[in-house]
UniProtKB/TrEMBL annotation, chain A:
UniProt GO MF annotations: ABC-type oligopeptide transporter activity; ATP binding; ATP hydrolysis activity
Recorded GO CC terms: plasma membrane
ABC transporter domain residues: 338-571
UniProt entry keywords in alphabetical sequence: ATP-binding, Cell membrane, Membrane, Nucleotide-binding, Transmembrane, Transmembrane helix, Transport
Name of this protein: ATP-binding cassette domain-containing protein
Pfam families: ABC_membrane (PF00664), ABC_tran (PF00005)
Compartments where found: Cell membrane
UniProtKB/TrEMBL annotation, chain B:
Native organism: Psychrobacillus lasiicapitis
Signal peptide: none
Protein name per UniProt: ABC transporter ATP-binding protein
Superkingdom: Bacteria
One Pfam family it belongs to: ABC_membrane
Intracellular or extracellular location(s): Cell membrane
UniProt domain ABC transmembrane type-1: residue ranges: 32-317
GO cellular component, one term: plasma membrane
Keywords: ATP-binding, Membrane, Nucleotide-binding, Transmembrane, Transmembrane helix, Transport
Membrane spanning stretches: 30-52, 72-92, 145-167, 173-191, 256-279
UniProt topology in membrane: Multi-pass membrane protein
Keyword Transmembrane: yes
Start and end residues of each ABC transporter domain: 351-585
Amino acid sequence: MRVFLDLGWFFKERKKQYLLGIVMLMLVAFLQLIPPKIIGYVVDEISAGTLTSATLLKWLGILAVAAIGMYALRYYWRIMIFGSAIFLARQLRERLFRHFTKMAPSFYQKKRVGDLMAHATNDLSAVQQTAGAGVLTLIDSITTGGFVIAAMAITINWKLTLIALIPLPLMAILTSYYGKLLHQRFRYAQEAFSNLNDKAQESISGVKVIKTFGQEKEDTEDFVQLSQDVVDKNIRVAKVDALFDPTISLIVGICFFLSIIFGTRFILADEMSIGDLFAFTSYLGLLVWPMLAFGWLFNIVERGRASYDRIMNLLDEEIEIDDKENALEQKPEGNIQFHVDEFKFPGDERSAIHDVHFTLKRGETLGIVGKTGSGKTAILKLLMREFEGYKGQILYGEHPIDVYKKRSLREAIGYVPQDHFLFSTTVAGNIAFANAGASMEQVHEAAKLAYIHEDILQFTDGYNTVVGERGVSLSGGQKQRISIARALMMDPELLILDDSLSAVDARTEEAILEALKAKRQNETTIITSHRLSAIQHAHQIIVMSEGTIKEKGSHEQLMELKGMYFEMYQLQQLESLVEQGGEA
Amino acid sequence: MDEKQLQLSGKDQWKVFKRLLTYLKPHKKVIALALFLLILTVIGDILGPFLIKVFMDDYLTPRNFPTGPIVGLALGYVFIQVGNVIVSYFQLLRFQEIALKIIQQMRIDVFSKVHKLGMRYFDKTPAGSIVSRVTNDTEAIKDMFVSVLVAFVQSGFLVIGVYIAMFIMNVKLALVTIVLLPILFFIITTYRKHSSIVYQDLRERLSQLNAKLAESLQGMTMIQAFRQEDRLQDEFNAINDKHWNAGKRNIKLDSLLLRPAIDLVYALAIIMVLSYFGIISMNNVVEVGVIYAFVTYIDRFFEPINQVMQRLSIFQQAIVAASRVFKLLDEEDLAPSQKDIANAKIEQGKIEFQNVTFSYDGKTDVLKNISFTAEPGQTVALVGHTGSGKSSIINLLMRFYEFEQGDIKIDGHSVKDFQKEEIREKVGLVLQDPFLFYGDIENNIRLHDQEMSDEEVKAAAEFVQANIFIEKLPNTYKQKVTERGSTFSSGQRQLVAFARTIATNPKILVLDEATANIDTETEVAIQSSLEKMRKGRTTIAIAHRLSTIADAELILVLHHGEIVERGTHQELLNQKGLYHKMYLLQNNVVDDIA
C-alpha cells in the first residue's frame, strides 16, 4: 500500500477529482442497498396481499430514482477517478520525455532504447492502473463490503448475517491461494512463450543457414515441440484459472443455502419476513465483488509499486552535463584551442585519446584522418560537450567550452554525424530541423549546396516526401547529403562533418567540398574522414593513430614527410582505381 | 507498435472471423463435449433457483415442513450445486484446451509457411515483424478464443436457458421481459459501433506516441546537437495530449454504455418484474417463490452480458491480428520450386553457369550474362568489390532466388531438375557470417541430424581443426552456445560452421569467406582447414583475401555484374588489370602505381 503514499503528491494535486470520485463511489455503494430492500418490501406486501397501486408506485419510483442516480454517479466517478489516472500517465510521460531530452549520450550508451521504452509504456500503465483501478478496488471493497454487511446485520438480522458469512473468508483464502499458484504457473507459461519467441526469432534470423542445410522440416519439428510446451504450461495455468469461477459459485451457493435454511427458521420464529430473506440473498450477491476486488487490489498495488519505483529511479538519474551557474548566454566565436591530455569514455579502461593538442584558427578548415577507433570521433564529441571528464582544456574563443551555455555552444556548431539519423517527417522537415520556420527558398538553397536538390525533385512528393522509419527509402548517400543540408541550414559558426561523405561518390564529394569552400569563406570547418580526398584541401590536417596525433601539417607538408599520410594516400589512389574497375 | 493499425471494413472483419472459425473444425468432438458440459451447467444454474422457488411456495409460505420432501429438496440443491461446480470446472478447462490447441496449430501453420517463403520475402520484411506474426499476433487471437468466444457462447446458452425457464414458469411475464433483448441489443451494437472507432483511435494514438518516443530516444544526440529539445517536447506533448483526449473519450464511452448502462437495464428489469407481480397481486394470489426465481434469473442473466461487453475490445484486437496472420499465410513470395519430375543426382560435381542474367528487383541486373565452368574437383574463385555480384552467383546456385535467363547446370542437369534435398545434401555452403544456434557446440555441428554419431561430430571438428579450440573449452563439445554464439570469436564460429558443413560430406563446396576481424590465432587454422576441405570437392569460393585463392584453377574477377577478367592467379597478375591492382592493394605495395 506504500505506493498510495508515494503517489500522495498526485492525489493532492487532483484532490477535487479524487474526493468527488470517492464520495460518489460511496454514494453508489449506499444506493446499491436500496433495490434489494425494495424487493423485500414489495414481496412482503405481495405475500400479505396488502399491496396497493400507490405503494407499488412509491416503491418502484424510489427504485427508478435510485437506479438513475446510480447510473449518473457511476458515470461520474469513472470520469473522476479513471480520468485522473490517465492524467497521471500523461503527466509522467511528459516528465519522462523532458528528462530524456536532458540526458547526455553516456546515458544512452548505458541504457537500451527498448528498456527505456518499456519504462515509458508498461511501467507507466501499471502506475496508471494503481491510480485508477487500485483506488477503486480499495475504496469499493471497503465501502460496498462494509455497507452491505452493515445493512444485512442492522436492517435484517445480525444472527443470520454471522451464519451466512461463515464461508466467505474461505473464499478469500482460496482465491488468494489460487492467485499464488496461478502467479507461479503463469511465470512458467510466460517462460515457455518467451522460449517460443526466441526460437522464432532465431529461426528467422538464421533462415539462410536452415535453408542451406535443408533443415526446414526439422526446424519446424523443433518449433512444434516448443509450441507443445507452451500448450502444456498454459493448460497448467488453465487448471488453476478454471478453479476461480466454480469455487466462487460453490461458496456463494453454500452461503445461500445457509441463509435459506437459517432464514427459514428465523421466519418461522417471526424474527424476519420472507421479504427480508429476499433482500438478504440479494445482499449476499452484492458481496461477491468486494471479496474479489480485495484480492485484486494486492495484485495491482504490488505491480504498481515496482513500476513506480523504476520510473522514479529513472527520473532521479542525474543530468551529467549541465550548464554551470552564470553560464554565458553568448554564442562562442573565434579560434578553437584543443588541449586534451587524456580522455576515457565512461566505463572504458583504455583512453580514447591522449595528448591531443591543436589550434584551429577562425575561418580555417581542419581535416582529421585515421582508422576507425583512432580517436577522431572522440575529439568531436568533446568539442560538442557530449562528454566531459577529460584532463586538459578546450577553449572556444576566449573561454573554455563549459563556460558557455550548452545551447549557446551548440548553436554555433552544425554537426553532420556518421550515422545519418533522419526523422520520420518530410524531407523539407528534416532539412529545416533546426529552423522550423525557414522558408522553402532557404531549404532549397541548403539542399543545392549539399547536392541533394536534384535527387529530392525526383522523389514522388519532392520536398514533401516523408522519410520512412530511419530513412529506409533513401540510399546511404542521399541520407548523408540530407544530413549535410540540415547542418548547412544553420549557417553555423563551426561546421563538423564526421565522416559524412563516405557514401557519396567521388565526383559528388568534390562538388560538395567546392561548394562549401565557396560558401564558408570565413567560417570554421572540421572534417573527419578516412578518405583523404575529403580533407586534402584543408588548411591543417592531423593524422590520428591509437588515440593521439601521429602527423600534423598541410597536404603538401604531409606528402613530403613520406610517413603514414603518404602511405594512406597512395593506397587510396589504388583503391579508387579498383572501385572504378581498374580504368584510370 | 511496429505495425500501423489496419483499417478493416465490416465485411473484411466478418471474413477474417469466419476463417478463424474454420480452425474449430478438427476439434468438433471435443467442442461437442464441452458444449454438452456447458448445457449441463446452464441447466444446473436454472434448476437451483427453481428448487428454492418450490421450497418457498410449497413449504415456506404455508409453513408446512414434512421431513422427507424437505431433505430431498436440500439434497437436490446441494447435489446440483456441487455437480455444477465440478462440471463447470471441466467445461472451462476443456474450452481453454481447445483454444490453446487451435493457437498451437495456427502457430505451426505460420511457422511452416515462413520456411516455405523465399529469401526475397525475408529481404523485404523485417525479422521482427515476422516473429510478431508467429507469436504475438497469435497470442492476441488466443485471448479472443479463451475469453471472448467462450464468454459469448456461455452467455448465449444462459440467456436461452433463462428464457426457457421463465417461459415455463410464467409465459406472460417472460413475454414482457423479452423487451429487454432489443434494449440490450441496442446498447451492445451502439457500444460496438462507437467503441470500434474510439478504441481504434486510442490504439493509434498510443502507437504514434510510442513511435515518437522511440524515434526521439534513438535520435536524441541529434536533437540535442541541433537544440531541438523544446520543439520535440512540444511535439511529443501534442501527441500525448491527443492520446489523453482519446483516453478520456474512451472512458466516457465505457462509462456511458458499459457497466453503468447494463446496471440501469437491470434495474428496469427488476421494476418490470415487481410491477407485473404487484399488479397481479392486487386481484390474485401470487406465489412468492416465482418472484424469487425471476429476480434470481434476471441476476444471472446480466452477469455474462457484462462480461461480453467488457471483452469486445479484445475481439477487435484479435480480428486485426488475425488479418495480419492470414496475410502472411497467403503470402505468395515462395522459395523457388523444383520441377515436378526432379530426380537428377549429383555424382561428379561439375558446375556450369550458362549465360545467366539476374535481377533482384526486375529493374537493374546484378548479374549480366555470366558463364563459366567448374570441372569436378576444381576451385573457382570469385573476386570483386562489394556489389560486384559475387554473392548473387552463390544465391542462384543455392536456389535461394529464382532466375529466368540462362541456366545453371550441375553434372549436366539444370539446378531446377534436382530435388531440393539433393542440392542441400550435396552442396555445402559456408556463410560469411557463421550463424550459431542456441544450444551447445555439438548441436551446432550436428544440427537436426540425429543419426549423426558423436564420433562423426568429433571427426568433422577434427577435420577442420576446430577440435583444438573446442577441447580447450570447459565443457568441450557440450559447451553452451548462447545468443548467436556471441561468446565465441568470429574465427571460432567460422570453424564450427566449417565442421557443420564438412559433417554432411558434400560433393560441392560453396564458400563465402569471412572478412570480419578474425583473430590471428584462428586465422591460421581457418586457412589450413579451408585447404583440406577443398580437396576432392568442386569449390566455388568468394575470396576477400586474394592470397587464399592463389591455387584456384579459375579466378573470375567481377565488376558491376560482369566477368571482366578470368584466368589463374599468375595469368591475371600478368594481365596487369584489375586483379593485379587488387593484389597490390592488398599487399600494400604501392610504388608500382604511384
